[in-house]
Predict the structure.
Amino acid sequence: MKIKVKLYTILEKYAKGKVLENDTIILHKGTTLQGLSHYLNIPDDNGIVFLVNDSLKDKGFGLHEGDEVKIFSFIAGG
Amino acid sequence: MKIAEINLDNEQISYLKLEEKDVRKFIGGSGLGAKLLYEYTNHQTDPLGPENVLIFMTGPVTGTKVFSSDRFEVITKSPLTGIYAESDCGGEWGEALKRCGFDGIVIKGISEKPVHIVIKDEEIRIKDASNLWGKDTFEVDELLKEEIGTKARSVCIGIAGERLVKIAAIMNEGEFGRAAGRAGVGAVMGSKNLKAITVLGNKEVEIAHKEELNQFIKEITPHMVKVSERLREHGTSRDVELYEEIGDLPVKNWYQGNWEEQAKKISGPAMTKNILTGRYYCGRCVIGCGREVEIKDGPYKGQKGAGPEYEAIGMFGSNCLVDDLNVIFKAQDLCNRYGMDSISAGSLMSFCIEAYERGLVSKKDTGGLEMTWGNGDAIVKMLKKIAYREYIGKLLGEGIIKASEEIGGNSSEFAIHVKGLDVPAHDPRAKVSLALGYATSPRGACHVAGFTHNLEFAFALPDLGYPKTLDRFETEGKAKMVADMQNLMSLFDSLHICKFTLFAGMSVEPLLKSLNLVTGWDMTKEEFLKAGERIFNLKRLYNVREGISRKDDTLPARLLMHPRGGGSGDNLPRLNEMLKDYYRLRGWDEFGIPTKEKLLELEIASLP
């Protein structure tokens, strides 16, 4: 299935070579956010945030064709 | 423990005698500071009168190798809110005071003429400050480094504090500095005719188990450094885009939902790309969230200084619809120079703009300025009017309650504050625990008194009983989490450690271990958390004595009743529901007053 992925701030580097120029990525059907995160080699740290179609989701969420995923590494500011 | 009392009425200096059991009960920092304030002042104390005290407190771990411990707290009765005030500050002044042999100082009385206190080792002198009066905080810091020495560290007030502007801050470290910003502590300093306090000392800070502490710090350093990289790279504003996405970033005086494209222009990564020249650190810090910037174009081209923090970006930027980082830099720079709280100043700007746009404030009132959305130039000019008390700036400088009362109309609808303290740049409609936190924080709307929003968004704290992140819109369970986090944050403010270390693993157990290794105490986790609860309740008691109760524990209607859309959609915090649970869990009655049983349990029932 084809989904869109956008990585922010310090996570941008994990897109290299895996996410295509138009922010798309091809994954096996049923891949979870955890699976996507592993595929992109994003460290499993406290503070990784996933938005799927602009809604917050946890790591176990199963992705669907056409979903738009935004991944942030969050640390609370002042 | 050594605390000096400096009476500016007669220039007498004495030393407080504290009982060991009280030190252990209240720990230091804002805990002991709150106890002293409770004893020194009462409900009749005029915040700007001679009977109010201005207390500077370090914590037991200040000046040791414990991460980000070089901090101090200013505690006083607020001229802005009329209730308890504390304001935390980084930099290097806290350790420098400790190296003079003092854990804290209490300033009382009012000097007849402007003065400057100089503490060199244990010698305290009160000097004439007529050469400093009228100067901005950057100039004062530079002059004092020339006069006393480059290793000397100073706190001072600017023009705003001298003129008793109610949102005046106490500044530290000059251009690349830090602020004890909130609740008008700078106006209290100004009311005492006290321009600056300089400290320079060489004493070693006593550590009970030095070797074990060194070993402990060595063990946790790699993780702390690694996790801190996230905050170091783009500073406190690194997540502006994310906050906009989820509806946390205030937009158009807390009214609007999305502002996506503009938010990108004022984010931490945009600052890094366009104007960043370096980073700076507080003492004992491995994070380095401070930004050094140089403006490359426009009317401020060539100006250098501290880059804006997240709060300044939220309050002067998105909340005023200003999408120009150069303007936001200038606004924060002026706040630092004049010595004003950038959160309250930003809030007053969006309030004034909305009042102007609604026809409640005229161009005549503003001295010719067009206070319209996105007009950065007008904002920069209005900040000067607040500091110098000109035109409507004089009224705005009295604080948002007074300003709203005078402006009239429906302006109270869009005066966004709790108990007179302006709401900081995190939206309780995006993370509902903030609603309860703002309603019950001891100083009014404050996001760091509970720091709860992090547990509703990507973070967990297993050693406080929160192994999983909570749902940000869910009401259930939030009352307990808010109370637990407020107790823990009371400990951070008392030890005195930067709360950003929490994200790098400095939670309950490492915090307690640090305290025990430094002091030689054998405090248990239960005793430690009880101290946090005691300290929080003491601050509540102070406010109850000032007349605070359930009627005041609320939020502006805009945050409770207006769905902003965007990333938080139509979600609204169910404050009453959370508050009812919270009072019960806290052992407070239905009016929000701590019960006798609770006070006995916390061993503070004997306070008058």
In short: Chain B has a mean pLDDT of 96. Chain B has 23 helices and 17 strands.
